[in-house]
Amino acid sequence: MDRSVLLRNLRKHWNDAGWWRDVAVPFAVRTAFVQPYFRYVADDRGTDVMAEDWDTLVILDACRYDMFAATNPLEGDLQTRRSRGSNTAEFLRRNFEGHSFEDTVYVTANPQVNVNLDDPFYETISVWQRAWDDDLNTVLPETMVEATIEAHETYPKKRIISHFVQPHYPFVGELGQSLLDEQAGIEFSKRQATGEAAESDHYNVWDLLKRGVVDETAIWDAYRENLELTFPHVERLLAAVSGRTVVTADHGNLVGEVPEPFPIPFRMYGHPPGVYADALVTVPWLVVEADVRRDIVAGDASGTAEDAPETDGDDEEAEDRLRALGYLS
Fold this sequence. Notes:
Layout (H helix, E strand, L loop, with lengths): L2 H11 L3 H24 L15 E6 L3 H7 L5 E6 L5 H9 L4 E8 L3 H5 L4 E6 H4 L10 H14 L4 E9 L6 H6 L7 H8 L10 H6 L5 H25 L4 E5 L4 E4 L10 E3 L7 H4 E7 L25 H11 L5
Parallel strand pairs: 1-5, 1-6, 3-4, 3-5
Antiparallel strand pairs: 2-9, 6-9, 7-8
Helix pairs in contact: 7-11, 7-13
């Protein structure tokens, strides 16, 4: 929660004891003690993902390493990396801000890419703009696979980043939806990106936990289900794209843990910025090798430089398909 949201809520809830207990006091402790500790004591350095060796980078939003390791069915060499951010905005700014990556196409289901970055990539394909699920307020993983495959076919000489929403809430599986009849999706981020009033339609899972609607075990189970239902779609993507692929996360999640190595037993939830706890910044790094690597080249911002199509029409056909799906204008 940023300070403007807190002030707005303060005017709304100033006489609500539950709000002070569950929201205001934890926010104050986090900003006064936890974040300064990690800023000045703990190591906030992490992996520069663009300096790593990959042709396709699949980002699973808010995916903890331990959960990934316990459930992963994908073939590959599972390693760990340290993320540069404890939430998506931090991850994006610390990896991409102030740089130009004309050899990279970013395919995103998460509007935070559009909110936090000034288009540093050769192309940004905002899947959330054209393939939004209005019922769940998110972008489903099967939609992301289609968009990423199309991007791969359209830009065969570019690195591709594919940023899924899942396993981040909303919980889209059968268990998750049965536990939470009404839950916020990522509509707050969408409204930030489109300039609307940035509000959620419902309480998010952490708010529902504080209100006793669900418990930590239920959240963990639904969170795990979100990841497990995403794996088959990632597996399909791995089979469809060429080159070396890495599956990773932008950050993890806290589900009631003390943010170690913070020395005070203060339990936290979600993925607040500036909290470089192990559960938040230790992320999976699954390397899936390929017999043949892609030939990656850079191009100018208009796409007319040295990677301009040399084709017999296949690239134009792929771009037409991508445009027909609404991912390009």
